[in-house]
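Hi V.,

You were right to ask for the full record rather than a summary. Here it is.
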Amino acid sequence: MTTHRPTTTLWRPTGPVELDLVRESGWRAWPPRLPEQPVFYPVMNEDYAIRIARDWNVEHDGAGFVTRFEVDTEFLAKYPVRQAGGRTILELWVPAEELAEFNAHIVGEIRVVHEFRRPSPSVVSRAEE
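Predicted structure:
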């Protein structure tokens, strides 16, 4: 008999470059942080992830994605939930040097659940004179 450990659902707003690296991992891991990114921060609720992907990633990267994934709940207990703003703006802060261990506790695949893109400019035709 197989026992299933409880998992916690997390979301991650991401841009196209990071998403390509997740795809290359087989949808199983987050890529290492860049030197200027000392913390990996998944978020605790979908609405917050949507706001970041739609309002920040689209503006900076031309597209934003919201991913959803499960992580072993017992493992996550070592990362306190941090309030990054309002009552529902909740994140986990995973130090970059612990990301490989964090990835090892992802259960199943990382899935894209929302996609946002910069609107295409409208084509306006002018009547010939």
